[in-house]
Amino acid sequence: MGTYVLKRIMTIIPIFLIATLLTFGMINLSPVDPAEAYFTAAHIQATDEMLEQKRHEFGLDQPLLIQYVNALIKICQFDFGISYVTNKPVWEEITSRMPATIQLTIGSLLIAILVSIPIGFLAGMKKNTGIDHFSRFLSFIGASIPSFWLGYLFIFFFSVKLDLFPVEGTGTWKHLILPSLTLAFPLIALYTRLLRASVLENLQESYVLFARTRGIHEKVIMGKHVLRIAISPMITGLGMNLGNLMTGAIIVEAVFSWPGFGRYFIDAIFNRDVPVIQGYVLLAAGLFLISNLIVDLIQMYIDPRISRKGRQYQ
Asked: What is the residue range of 167's domain?
């Protein structure tokens, strides 16, 4: 099993190298001149001599291969360059905004998990009952409503009309409720449907029949065996969504003026802040790879069949 885990970790390296290569290639193929973008962000009317000097400073007059190797070395040192707008290191800017995004991510995931697990599990156990119809309705609504519109609805009802929660910003737990709910709602729709379908599938498996034949209590079968195996697709979905949430739910952060990494990325796009854009893309790729690796390891622990499959590759 240890060898299998090591192999899974080693597969991250070439994938991340490909991500860095694609990011570097797209930036160089872009019509945006980094030197020109730098002076534009600084509101400076640059001359040709100033542009040439800045290109030399950025190393843009060197061959592409040397530029890529130098960029890769800096990335390994968590050096994504200097922001054109703030003149501060991009990594410093990222780490200063990450706590707000992590806080929002944890809040939305907790809400999604606490709501979707009981609803999805009961919907699968009691097919075509009231709870099942409710889960379908909830999934349909969650998958249909755009996040920005849902966020404005929450603001209108809970902030403007009822005056229960703040409209924007951070500071207290009340500031976290509405943006977390907005992010969690589509996740609830997805996880509920995944868990319901997985429960229905596992109820047809032979291990459930054997457990009932042995006289094991139904609650033990459902809670200890069915739920543990059926939750695997939901964990997979969690791994796919975790990277997206960690790199910033851009629309939700913009709606609620949440000072996270997503808003920082939006500002970088408008200002053509190339180092920030590059740092965001690479950070997103790294977080997606790490979150999926963590999910794979969790699934190996939850589902023994995956662990046995992993041993076959040792």
From this structure: 99-259
